[in-house]
Fold this protein.
Amino acid sequence: QVQLVESGGGLVQPGGSLRLSCAASGFTFSTYAMTWVRQAPGKGLDWVSEVNSGGGSSYYADSVKGRFTDSRDNAKNTIYLQMSSLKPEDTAVYYCHASLWRTELDPIDDYWGQGTQVTVSS
């Protein structure tokens, strides 16, 4: 059974830090690109960050670049999102997304986690 389980969300003060985790199972984790996507209240999905299957390349949305760090541990089938200098506008449900690609133009498969709530408020 394919599962992506996010954890680590919660309530944090502005300027604080939080680390999210996404534990994967049921598929060949090391071959999938892993992405964090978030949905703020009343808004659509926003891409946050991505780490390639090999873990050698990470990409970030401009809104989080310099504050968030994405990483993966293929041995643990887990990705992490280290968030610092958090702002109220970072408040959202954060989802873990796995995708398999033959080429950058040929997506094959993808899975979504259930999400974890991050609330940044004073």
